[in-house]
């Protein structure tokens, strides 16, 4: 019989049926993050919604109190004083027509995109590039704004976007495996609270149906939903 690899043993050690308390799940996810790089601790929230219907879409932003552990690169479409404000706040890439040409050329050198309202006519031309990446600026998410400095600082300081996928699931990182369990719990609670408050008017029946945690390369760990909902 062939020997199990270290990763296979890790996966085999997790009870895929058992429902764990959230603190136990966080501890297991951290313990199973055994790669040479600092793995992200990820959460999957299965919701009782059908995002094909506009009144069942769940999308928003939340600031993770313990940060993300990632160096988020921010691109800003702005001119003049607003471009200078964005740079002063720490934006990585700032421009107008010049940045449009760079992105159209296939180089998207940022993770979050912010724009002043007057730039949206320009940015709209990038819908086919930024849209599929989930990076199209949106007023509801605070990424179309005249307060570009604050928006850049928020993006750099732990703010993340969440959006339900076609299957009704939200995937989001809540920090790194190197984070303390307490910091990961704070981030998990913040995300769950935001998603709960974003419950759409068209949602019927049980809203939060399943919760699972994992590290980037680790096995999924099921969480007892009743333990994390009121």
Question: What is the global morphology?
Answer: globular
Distance from first to last alpha carbon: 48 Å
Strand content: 15-25%
Biggest sheet details:
4 strands, antiparallel
Q: What would you call the structural class? A: alpha/beta
* Low-confidence sequence ranges: none
Structure description:
With 230 residues, the protein is α/β, with parallel strands linked by helices. It contains nine helices and nine strands. Strands 7-1-8-9 form a four-stranded antiparallel sheet.
Could you give the topology of this structure?
Blueprint: H1 6-13, H2 22-31, E1 40-47, E2 59-63, E3 74-77, H3 80-88, E4 93-95, H4 97-104, E5 112-115, H5 120-123, H6 127-130, H7 148-156, E6 159-163, E7 169-176, H8 181-197, E8 208-215, E9 221-223, H9 225-228
Parallel strand pairs: 3-4, 3-5
Antiparallel strand pairs: 1-7, 1-8, 2-6, 8-9
Task: Characterize this entry briefly.
With 230 residues, the chain is an alpha/beta fold.
What tags apply to this protein structure?
230 residues, alpha/beta, 4-stranded antiparallel β-sheet, 3-stranded parallel β-sheet
